[in-house]
Design a protein that fits this description.
The chain has about 130 residues and is of the alpha+beta class. A hairpin with a 2-residue loop joins strand 1 and strand 2. It contains three helices and five strands; from the N terminus they run αααβββββ.
């Protein structure tokens, strides 16, 4: 059990140090990074739930299960925020009909003349009304 904790701690430290330095602008790299962070967060949550059980040795599968769920959730978040999907608002009103959607985040680069640099702006549309 101690050996697993040491290896997990070293892997987490290595992962955070390695990937926090990299600045990826590519959509695939961003999605992969989101999936990686989701996996790490899921593994940590699985380990936390494992520690809450009476017999932790009997429930070691919580860690890889949490990591797997985290990877899937992180990849879904990465795809949703990458701009690859059609952006939609949370609610749309068209011809008197209201439809509810999963809102997606739009990302834009805007030049800030005061700071003399480009900034990433993220935006979520809540309601879209078509006349």
């Amino acid at each position: 059990m101690q050996k697993i904790k040491r290896i997990s701690a070293l892997a987490l430290i290595f992962t955070f140090l390695t990937f926090s330095v990299a600045r990826a602008e590519d959509v695939m790299q961003q999605t992969m990074r989101d999936a990686l962070y989701g996996g790490v967060a899921g593994a940590l949550i699985g380990a936390a739930v494992l520690l809450l059980t009476d017999n932790p040795d009997d429930h070691l599968n919580y860690i890889p299960t949490g990591a797997g769920i985290g990877i899937l959730a992180g990849a879904a978040y990465g795809v949703a925020t990458s701009g690859m999907m059609i952006t939609s608002s949370a609610a749309e009103v068209e011809d008197g009909k209201i439809t509810f959607n999963m809102p997606t985040i739009k990302k834009e680069k805007i030049y800030d003349e005061i700071a003399n640099r480009y900034e990433d702006i993220e935006q979520v549309d809540l309601i879209r009304v078509k006349f």
